[in-house]
């Protein structure tokens, strides 16, 4: 188990959870999103191998309507 | 006649109208308005995914970035760091380097902070971004942006979302005359005729959001803007008659009975 902060909210995940697993959990695989892991942007190709640790701060963003 | 194409930031556009995708009642209405406008480029914002509601529809379910050019913006950013962070995320998300930079300076007027804007433009251009830049209508600052690598100059007509139309036609004209990159009036356009005026001044394009989204019938207004921009552009290309301060009869006097 690990506690992470996802988009400003506390979330508990299993151990050895990757960014790709996180996207699966929120049904965001193959959607246009970008991820910041502790302030660093992670390229899509590394989503699978990037494992999450306790206290990690994750931001998942997407495009919304705007002017 | 040669086709009138707008070349901006490496993209070729048949339509000189760019539309924003904010403030609509639903994504369905957004998509319909975009289609009615004939725009080939739309602005989008970058925000956190709502992790509490997995079923919430996404904008990209309604507008396909493969069919329409997405121009990610930095709306809501009040300093260079926030803007750069947002656009680097947008680049990773979309896989393209075309962006609209806006660094705001004041919450009430949403006027751009030009010092931070110029600084951010410089950094983004160096990183290979194609930066279309929201700015004040000051010709000197607009020139600074161009010198620092802006791909398009986007002066405000009046404050964002105000609908007040073009407040300083002289400045917009000065910016048009001096710029080698496209000039696209952004922000403050209130109704279709405002867009025509911008195009008649010689703007390369206009960016509209609130004037369409806040109309009573947004889809009809989107069509109105499509036609207004075409009319204004044609009027500019046709070259208006000279203004004179006396009457000049349209019918000949010869043969008068």
Structure description:
The complex is a heterodimer of chains A (67) and B (257). The mean pLDDT of chain A is 92. Chain A has a five-stranded mixed sheet, with no helix packed on it. Chain A has one helix at residues 19-25; strands at 2-6, 9-13, 33-37, 40-42, 57-65. The longest helix of chain A is centred in the N-terminal third of the chain and has 7 residues, at 19-25. Chain A is built from one helix and five strands. Chain A has 67 residues and is mainly beta. Chain B has 257 residues and is of the alpha/beta class. Chain B contains eight helices and ten strands. Chain B has helices spanning 27-37, 80-94, 114-126, 139-147, 169-178, 192-201, 210-213, 218-238, and strands spanning 6-8, 11-13, 17-20, 41-48, 69-72, 98-101, 130-135, 152-155, 184-186, 205-208. In chain B, α1 (27-37) links the parallel β3 and β4 (41-48). In chain B, α4 runs parallel beside α5 (169-178). The relative contact order of chain B is 0.14. The mean pLDDT of chain B is 94. Chain A binds chain B through residues 6-9, 11, 26-28, 31-34, 36, 41, 43-44, 59-67, and chain B through 20-24, 27, 30, 43-49, 51-52, 54, 58-60, 65, 70, 72-73, 75, 85, 88-90, 92-94, 160-161, 187, 207, 209-210. β5 of chain A pairs antiparallel with β4 of chain B, so a sheet runs across the interface.
Give the topology:
The complex is a heterodimer of chains A (67) and B (257).
Chain A: E1 2-6, E2 9-13, H1 19-25, E3 33-37, E4 40-42, E5 57-65
Parallel strand pairs in A: 1-5
Antiparallel strand pairs in A: 1-2, 3-4, 3-5
Chain B: E1 6-8, E2 11-13, E3 17-20, H1 27-37, E4 41-48, E5 69-72, H2 80-94, E6 98-101, H3 114-126, E7 130-135, H4 139-147, E8 152-155, H5 169-178, E9 184-186, H6 192-201, E10 205-208, H7 210-213, H8 218-238
Parallel strand pairs in B: 3-4, 3-10, 4-5, 6-7, 7-8, 9-10
Antiparallel strand pairs in B: 1-2
Short description:
Chain A has 67 residues and is mainly beta. Chain A contains one helix and five strands.
